[in-house]
Amino acid sequence: MAATMSNVEEIRNRVILGEFDVKNVHSSDFPGNYPGYDDTWNMQKFQKNFRIDVVHLDENSMEFDMVGIDPAIANAFRRILLAEVPTMAIEKVFVYNNTSIVQDEVLAQRLGLVPIKADPRLFEYRNAGEESAEEEGSEIDTIQLQLKIKCSRNPRASKDSSDPRELYLNHMVYSRDITWVPIGNQADVFADSVIGPVHDDILIAQLRPGQELDIIMNCVKGVGKDHAKFSPVATASYRLLPEITLLELVEGEKAERLKRCFSRGVIDIEDVNGKKVAKVVNSRLDTCSREVLRHDDLKDVVKLGRLRDHFIFTVESTGILPPDVLVTEAIQVLMVKCQRFLNELDSTNME
Amino acid sequence: MAVEGEKKPVLEMVQADGADEGCVTFVFHDEDHTLGNSLRYMIMKTVDVDFCGYTITHPSESKINFRIQTRGGIPATEPLRRGLNELSSVSQHVLNTFQARVNEFKERQEQPME
Fold it and tell me: Which residue ranges does the record assign to the DNA-directed RNA polymerase RBP11-like dimerisation domain (chain B) (predicted)?
């Protein structure tokens, strides 16, 4: 099948969603693949076509469009957000006393997953060597936290009460009970930023009168590929912008049915000379369910595709750093990676 | 083999016997698809490169084998160096654009409040 010019454009720029397959999934814009196209890397061309639009931004989540970049690079940013942007998390748990029914190791695992509000950029990695494993942490690489709580009977509880909330004091241990123990000069350095759990209502354990917890925790800097507790995002993902094209006029009952095949707000019904005519108003809202392809009389009137280089990023932070800071950090991590190998290449060639 | 550092090697070069310097497998330690795929894309965008690809040697090893074959006797380190530089400047441009847009967005959000 000879590829016509418009066909080539489609192969290069669109992912086509068919009834049984998804076509043109891979990037093919490499030199030598298409006659008449100059696909060699061109920084000016990239800078001209590249754009970012911020759609939504608050302290916990953001959505933005990244347009004009290859999936390989967009995916690198996403992967770095998940696994390589550092944060501080509880790594060592010293249990001095634990008479609760939660076992030490289970408790330690639960504590590790509590997000700790501390700017990881102000801390160093702790050396991973064997000789330093036993070493005490210092003020530049460690945050010390304490959890010391004991449950007791509430003397003011009414006699006939059976509600634990009334009968006992401190029977629910929350993350707000974790206190920060500054090491060295940390109390001065972090005077205006309180270090501690991001959320104060994470339930850690339940106690009964007489049971107590006495725990010291050490937080260190780490990355998500070592353990998920270090991951700075609740989720970071992207999707490609959907494109829905109506190939012929759809009216009446068919139009209503077409509208119901897509997410709400994608298709609108307009009144043209007394007839109901379907129109695509916002293809961005579509989930690309391909429901329309199950209707035999509708599947040939629409073309479903996605723009290959239009990424709709969604970044949800755990609350340690704002999402826009996370993205800038992720981009910098990729630059550091490049620099690391450039330096290595330079030192190799010297020999 | 080029670098066999005393501690942890970062980058190694592996060449078959009798192969010229245009056909080299680089071993990137502590890397995965993140750098592998994005760098592969940048290097495949170069005309003189005949082949560029990578594999992760084993799921429990944290290194990738990154293969470059060039045309016309160009040393493989040349497109690698260019690829790393280009990837770095692409990231720089993305970073600048992102920060500019975020600042614009924040300013726009503040204005209606007043």
Answer: 23-96
